[in-house]
Specification:
Dna Ligase, domain 1, five-stranded antiparallel β-sheet, 13 strands, globular, Rossmann fold, 3 domains, D-amino Acid Aminotransferase, Chain A, domain 1, about 30% helix, alpha+beta, four-stranded parallel β-sheet
């Protein structure tokens, strides 16, 4: 019987993305039946699936308890990719501290409550004049801000509720971000392709909502090996992952690791969809490496 694979999306944007359509087509060429369904829609859409692949579950952080319950239900009923352990690892950005403890180069980071005194202590300890702040549980660049020491109280007062509820990560500002954030995509730990996301003038955020310029990139092998080494420190090897960062003097500084619902930019490297599909089939035991 043909494996049925469901690509999980969201009710706000239920269609399979252009990038993920390439992946779905590659799976279908391998005999799979592929459908898309929002995680926050009817559960019946996932019934009997041989695997559920988290793809564009954007906005999950606004209903975090519901999303946790849904992923637990999926993991109990079928194969969930990435796994429940990786989902839990990725839900809070304090994983950056775990990466640092494992020897991965990351920006200096602090996870603190979202209040002026706690964030002010970070500025006092570090001597920073500015820092990036983001919700400890969040995605897609929502509520990511550049705080200035001189205007800290007013800026903290204006942070979104999601930051107040989850706490925040206060992170060293990396000037290299002006040249763009490098996104390295891996399937089963093997480097596939990369893009560079350059923020528009006057902006430091490179998430899609800020309209960055995206271009295909060919990073040096040493950089892609560093990204792979970063993934090797995770609780287990993810089926798919995106490692975001900047390069300074040949060293990859990892800003984020996305193993939950990263956009994989397969439309910038169409053969990558075949690699993703093949890695998926191997995980399902449908082919042999």
């Amino acid at each position: 019987m043909s494996p049925h694979i469901v690509l999980a999306t969201s009710a706000d944007d239920p269609a399979i993305t252009v990038s993920d359509r390439l992946y779905a087509d590659a799976l279908e060429r391998r005999g799979c039946r592929v459908t898309g369904a929002p995680w926050d829609g009817p559960r019946e859409a996932f019934a009997g699936a041989d695997a559920v692949v988290l793809r564009s579950t954007w906005g999950y952080f606004r209903a975090l308890d519901d999303f946790k319950a849904w992923t637990e239900a999926m993991a109990a009923a079928t194969r969930l990719f990435n796994s429940l352990d990786l989902v839990r690892w990725n839900l809070r950005k304090d994983y950056v501290e775990k990466l640092a403890a494992a020897g991965v180069r990351v920006p200096r980071s602090f996870v603190v409550p979202c209040d002026v005194s706690a964030i002010g202590r970070v500025f006092d300890e570090t001597g920073w004049a500015q820092a990036v702040v983001k919700p400890a549980s969040g995605a897609s660049g929502h509520s990511v801000e550049l705080l200035q020491r001189a205007t800290l109280a007013g800026q903290v007062a204006g942070l979104a509720d999601e930051a107040r509820q989850a706490g925040v990560v206060v992170q060293e500002f990396l000037p290299e971000i002006a040249e763009g954030e490098l996104s390295l995509v891996y399937f089963d730990g093997v480097f596939s392709h990369a893009i560079r996301k350059r923020p528009p003038p006057g902006e430091f955020r490179s998430n899609s909502r800020y309209k960055p310029t995206r271009t295909a990139e060919t990073p040096p092998p040493a950089v892609t090996r560093q990204g792979a080494a970063c993934l090797a420190t995770l609780p287990e090897m993810p089926l798919y992952a995106r490692v975001d960062g900047v390069v300074r003097d040949g060293v990859l500084i990892v800003i984020e690791v996305e193993v939950l619902e990263p956009a994989l930019a397969m439309d910038f490297a169409p053969p990558s969809a075949e690699r993703f599909a093949e890695a998926t089939m191997i995980r399902l035991g449908e082919t042999r490496p």
